[in-house]
Amino acid sequence: MLAFAVSFLTPRAAWLALLALLPLVALAVAARRVARVRSALRLPDPGSGDRRRRAALVAAVVLLLVLAAMQPVVHAQTSVRERSDAAAFVVVDVSRSMAASHAPGSPTRLARAKQAAYALGAQLPGIPLGVATFTDRVLPDLFPTSDTAAFDSTISSLTANSPPPRDVNTTATTFDALTALATQGFFRPSVHKRAVVLITDGESRAFDPNGIADALRSHGTALSVIRVGDGADRVWHDDGTPEANFRPDPAGARLNVTRLDRAAGVAPGADSASIVRRAVGSGPTSVIGVEPRSRTLAPIFAALALLPLVLLLLGRTSPRWLRRVTFWKRQVADPRGVAT
């Protein structure tokens, strides 16, 4: 359902329409003077069509600019629908290693993970998306919703090592914690088509990829992994020196992600948005609210005012141009000269 309404941000600007009377009065006065002179010289009346045309164009320019000054705004309300039988969770790794970056002040792994989450959300309209954080446990931050603002805001609020892992370990992350997504009530019972997208640097303690994949698959949940980070990343102190305890393992991280992908039956590097869409397929939708949208029309009316202005200027310049063309035609026809 789509509903429209129009309002003006500055309706008092309508009084400026009175300015349209000034050029019209000026044209009328000039026309009367020309008519008196023409009558005195006994010249024929060329007709009033051109005068009316100029008056109409002048009035159109002023009125369109007045409409622009009134700042008309179109308000629309669009029904927001979402799938009632499908949902997906974006699970973001927030372990200490996600604070690593190429250099002090450069985007961290977590910042890159957030960008991947924003891009993923934009590609899945109508599919309820939830957000969860992940270290050695998975905790929900936002249950699945089609509210894109809520999704983006939740992703934006994520910080590294918050919440911290329960255990103190050189590598705190364990992918085995992902099985909680299948058994701990992250999805409503009515949601039968489920997907999980894990965004991580791939660093984990020993885990059972087949056990994770089987647990998710038994509850109708597809799994996709997006890996961020590389071996050049370091966790930096405030003084710009690297943290000695952090030692990236890019080969091990790539192997961990490959093992998860293989267990989930996903080709390495497959597009996560496509995996989610394929997992949830098509199904019933329900209206969950309305989304208001507003669009200002002032620039449109201001641009439209240029059209009658150009026609007005062309109307004044074309006779002179035509006279010049006629003059040169006569010169060609009679080189001895033509009176100007």
* Spatial strand order of the main sheet: 5-4-3-6-7
The major sheet is characterized as: 5 strands, mixed
Count of helix runs: 10
- CATH fold naming of the largest domain: Rossmann fold
Structural class of the helix and strand makeup? alpha/beta
Which percent bin holds the helix content?
40-55%
What is the assigned CATH homologous superfamily of the largest domain?
von Willebrand factor, type A domain
Number of domains: 2
Write a brief structural summary.
With 340 residues, the protein is an alpha/beta fold. The chain contains ten helices and eight strands. The chain has two domains: 2-75 and 295-333, no CATH class; 85-283, Rossmann fold, CATH 3.40.50.410.
Task: Spell out the blueprint of helices and strands.
Blueprint lengths: L1 E7 L12 H20 L8 H21 L2 E12 L2 E8 L15 H14 L6 E6 L3 E8 L2 H9 L23 H4 L9 E8 L8 H10 L2 E7 L22 H15 L7 H9 L4 E12 L1 H7 L1 H28 L7
Written overview of the protein:
By secondary structure, the chain is α/β, with parallel strands linked by helices. It has two domains: 2-75 and 295-333, no CATH class; 85-283, von Willebrand factor, type A domain (Rossmann fold). Helices cover 40% and strands 20% of the residues. The protein contains ten helices and eight strands. A five-stranded mixed beta sheet has the order 5-4-3-6-7. Helix 3 runs antiparallel to helix 4. The longest helix has 28 residues, at 306-333. The chain is elongated.
